[in-house]
Amino acid sequence: MESKAKLLGHPIHQILIVFPLGLLGMAVIFDVLRVAAGWALGTTVFHMIAAGVVAGLVAAVFGLVDWSAIPGSTRAKGVGARHGLGNVVVVVLFLASWWLRRDDPANPPSTAFVLSLLGGGLALVTGWLGGELVNRLGVGVDDGAHLDAPSSLSGRPARSSER
After folding, report:
1. pLDDT in tens, 53-76
2. How far apart are CA 121 and CA 89, in angstroms?
3. Where are the domains of the chain?
4. Euclidean distance between CA atoms 116 and 48, whole angstroms
5. In whole angstroms, what is the distance from residue 134 CA to residue 39 CA?
C-alpha cells in the first residue's frame, strides 16, 4: 500500500521519523550518562527533548494521513493504531519530562529522568510496530516495488511489465 503523503516519491512520515527517534533516543542516552557518570548534559537533554517532541508531532501528522488510508478490516489498521497511539504516549511522556526540567534543565528532578526512560522504552516498542507496518505489512511501500525499479525521481512507475 503506497503512502498518501510523499515528497520526491518517498513517504514523508518515513522521512521524518528519524528526527524524533534520533533526538529522543539520544536524549535518553545522554540522560543515562548524566545520572550514571555525572556528565553535565542536562541542558543538552532538555533541548533535545524539546526538538524531539516537535519533530514527533510533525511526523505524526503524516503518519495519520497514511493510517487513514489503510483499509479498516486489515491487521495493518490495528497495528497502525497501536503504533500511533503508543507514539502519542511517548510524546506525552517526553513532554512531561521536559516540563519537569524547565526550571533547572542542568539539574532535573529524578521523575524527569524516569519519564524519559519510560518514553524511550515505549519508543522501542512503537518503532518495532512501525517496522512491522512497513517491512511485514507493506504499508508505505510503492505498489510496484522491486529490486530493479526505476528511481522515484524518474516519473516512471515502479511496476514493470517484464516482472
Report:
1. 999 999 999 999 999 999 999 999
2. 11
3. 6-136
4. 11
5. 38
DSSP one-letter code for 135: I
Which 3 state secondary structure label does DSSP give 136? helix
Burial 29-59 (b: 16+ CB within 10 A, else e): ebbbebeeeeeebbebbbebbbebbebbebb
| SS3 assignment, position 147 | coil
- The set of cell numbers assigned to 33 is 550518562
In this predicted structure, the answer to whether residue 17 has a pLDDT above a threshold of 90 is yes
Q: Rounded to an integer, what distance in angstroms lies between the CA atom of residue 132 and that of residue 115?
A: 26
Cβ(111)–Cβ(100) below 8 Å = yes
* Amino acid (one-letter) located at 54: V
Alpha-helical runs (H) found in the chain: 12-16, 18-37, 42-68, 75-101, 110-131
* Amino acid residing at 74: T
Report which of 45, 39, 21 is spatially closest to residue 102, judged by C-alpha positions: 45
Residue carrying C-alpha cell 524531539 = 52
Distance separating the N- and C-terminal Cα atoms of the chain:
18
